[in-house]
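User: Round two. Same drill as before: sequence, then structure, for each protein.

Assistant: Same drill it is. First protein:
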Amino acid sequence: MPGAQQKEFDEPLPVIDRRLEDLEALLHELRAFNVGNLHSVHGRGVVLFAEGEAVRGAYILRTGRATVSISSSEGRVVMLRVVQPGDVVGLNAVLRNDSYDTTVKTLEPCRTDFIPRAQLIKLMQHSGAGAWAILKLLSRELNELTDRAKLVLLPQTVSGRLARLLLEWSKENGSATSAQFDKVLTHEQIGQMICTSRETITRLLAIFSRQEVIRVTSDSILIRDRLALEKLALG
């Protein structure tokens, strides 16, 4: 675990969002019960934990982004979501005291806080507020996974799934008519999010660009015609 050191939970969260209120509540309880953590700096492409590994604890993402994925015995990968600063990963495995059921891999350099399972369980046993904060974080994760299932299963066409994914990514960055956001995933990774191939993603992005629905650069995607993209998302 590169760059690891013990520290207090006193570092402010890098972003302000209503969804972070539950995490703030958890951090407050961790401080109150003198729970230590391991602060680490990770480079791009580092696996925080892998599907099937014995559970060690949970990670709080302080900065950067990471992917959460599952894989089949044949090696097919499905990306469930991209976690952002303030997200907690590994809680489900901590509570089940079982192996991790997903793989979490950094998309870019990240800083994390690691909380061992034993300390999280002790907190839940002795702090009703801490237990409630953890349950609310798990509920939010379940809601996000449900939304991801809808994204993959409801649109009948691959182009509809891609359009819906682009609209989802634009929510936090967009205005009423246009939005530009970072292109942090490769075409292969985008395909893993909507269960299709890299070649299909490349072809559909080119079609959307020719139709002037979006504009794609090496590091960003601009939604030029939101109404047209919303119509495609119904497909």
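Second protein:
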Amino acid sequence: MRLTAILILALMLPGLVFSATHTVKLDGSGDFISIQAALDASAQGDTVLAYPGRYFENVVIQTNDISLTSLEVSTNNPAYIDSTIVDGMALSPCIRVIHSRTEIYIRGFSFTNGLNIGAGGGMLFSSGSVAYVTNCKVYGNTASTGGGINVIGASVSLSGVMIYNNYSVNLGGGLYCTSVTGFTHSIVFDPVNRCSIYNNRSGSGQDIYIQNAANDLNVYLDTFSVAVPTTYYAIYWPEGLADYQMHFDIMNAHHQEIDSDLYVSPDGDDANDGLSPASALRTIHEGIYRIAADSLSQHTVHLLPGTYSRTDNNQVFPIALKSWVIVQGSGMDTTVVVGEPHPLIPVGYGSSDKVFFTHSEPLVSIADMAITTQGTDNSCAVKGLLKGSVNLSNLRVYNLQPDHNAAISIWSSNDYESVWDNVIIENIVTPDMGLADIGGSISGKISNCKFRNAVSTYTSASVWAYPLVSFMGDRNLTFENCEFSNLTMSDDNSNAIQVGAVQFPQQQNNFTFNNCLFSNISSQGGIMVSVSSNYPNMDFTNCTFAGNESNTYTLMANGYVSITNSIFDNDTPYQIRVNPMDISVETSTLNIDYSCIKDGLAGILQAPENTVNFLPTSISGDPLFAGGPDIHDPLYYSLSGSSPCVDAGTPDITGLDLLPYDLAGNWRVWNGRIDMGCFEYGSEPYVDNDDPELPAPPEGIALSLYPNPFHGEASIRYSLAKNSVVELIIYNLKGQVVRTLYKGIQGKGEQAIAWEGRDDKGRHVASGIYLLQMNVDGKEKYSRKLVKI
């Protein structure tokens, strides 16, 4: 339009001197053969007119009041948009408008194959610039943020622009906008000559991500990915606490989400419908993208057995999670997701180091799989930002090297209760993060989880290291049957485990720890800190803190702290520190009941204004653990028959809210009274109403299983009174032999053997209930239940 007007005025007023028009033709018949050369020769007010062709360039506009057009501007023929192409060659953005360049007009081009390891793959508008983009196509571009178009503190008007099939590893697959210091962004959509934005992919905000919004935004579109956008497709974050909204006016939807469960297989094809295992999709990202779900109708993306990686089957990472969608594998042993960074985006830019990513989704769920990474020394299994809850179950996260984020790093919300069950995070070495970093305000229940075998190598004379395990709770947060073991902090004044609380809104928080083991943790700044404002309730029931080493304390807590049926036996100057609070507002109270505390009252560090009640039901001294050859084995801290902690717990467990089984999966109360600590001496496997009935065991043989339930390997330990012929056989519930673990002569004393969940042919067995039968000298038969998950 603008060029046409200039030409008309030139004909009407031939005596005047107007701005120049520079023609660009690849065959050399124009003024220039490259767009950049024409722009470099242009002065303010000039026009660069590119004729059809594929221009392999990374164009930079550095002059004010420049028009860059194709022949579409004078002909109104859309064919010139498709035939006049700027190809970024996967080197840099296709086109970039630098800082504070104004009155930039771009019309009638296709921009594709651009790449930016930072922001803006197809088009990048820098701070202070003012641009008008008309009748262009932006597709097939890649960036860490803003795959198609990136607007950073600029003002951009879009008219008839199509943004599709772009990809960003972090935010805004199609369009990303943000403000920067001193420059507020502005984006305007033409309500008449409408744009289309669809089928883009990103870690968050598949099509649009706009932050630092300073007002409401009207988005007029011909076509969007779906008719009713959710935060999965479009995210709008106002500046500060303002309540600005993004209002869509959409004429057409690119696709209809599928109201059904979908299936994904390493051998599938994204051209399939995904409705059955036989027609499975290939990429997890595509399955989540296609599925429909809401709070009343959750659906599941089923991952069939196999390994999912970028190398093996072109998986897209990070995998963007969608609210109310359950991503469920076939089991920890059979479904493995291996995260790998984008080959063109270095680790540390955006989210190329994350496997699963959720942003602003109210509730997402991941279950029944293992997650690890390769090809990166900075990795995160699950990353969640800003709000929402993440439910995790039957999940193993292992062999990561988290740096910028923990292995699981979530900024949670208490709008929904979070549920973690049987989550194992292990074998982690980190320069400065950890296994779990849960911020925001998580509430809910963490059950049967294991945080183990991790080292933080970070050291500093002035800055604390991040804890290896950190939860910021709110309202009610419960840990039950959890294991925290074999953790090492290299820094000399940092804590290994931190459980804190949000400060706003001010309310009393309730933190509960039941049947938990804290063992073999080395952290000179303290083993565990559990603190909160507003006089929290903190309950530690049937917990074992043992084998830990620090030059300060084992546990620091504040508020109303209750320790019941627990054991503290650690190489620390103080077993417990009652954290002094602001005495002008509140003090702390510590009650110790039916517990074994090394050094008794002398093992407790307190401020004078706080209250410590070491009740006469509690004892001090050696708890006499069962021990064994491996101090890192949790069963090392089970009780021996001579332990003073056996049958020494509270006679009345009413109100303790304990599970019916202990940390090893055995009955929590045995021999008529509960023990101190997380293991019950001499107890048998817990059997609920649906489990098979086992024969009563004979006397004289101590047989222990851990963990039970187990996912990868179960440790079987037993003691023999004399040299004996021993058979260890695993049966299924049909009575069929699954595995003969051992058959032969064994000597007197402690014995140990492991079952890795395989049959006699080396195949992984299915999840379910199995029976371990121990035959001794062909006479005594001893049966125990094992649960594989």
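Residues 426-683 form one domain.

User: Perfect.
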